[in-house]
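It would be a great kindness if you could assist me with a short task in structural biology. The matter concerns a single protein, recorded as an amino acid sequence and a row of backbone structure tokens. The record follows directly beneath this note:
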Amino acid sequence: MDLETELKKCKKNLLILQEEYIKLQKSCNRKKSIIDNNIAVEILDYINECNNLTETARKFYCDPEELFESIPYWDDCNERLYGLEDYSFYKNKIEGRSKVD
């Protein structure tokens, strides 16, 4: 492989990594906002009432997949997730994506 081709490949990879960094930074900022605003408790209370991750995410303007992954950290276990109406949907969606990555 010549240097010019290698440089193009590196530039393309850099752009991909920059986009991923921006996405992760936004995700981190959203999670920090949730923690800083102490609405994690409100989210957990609401999810107990409605028993639906999608509805909870909609109410609190969160990404349901991020909530799915955050709840075990806030709650110190996964048990709250198991009983959700849409638990299987997000479990399959996230695990399926992880297997592809």
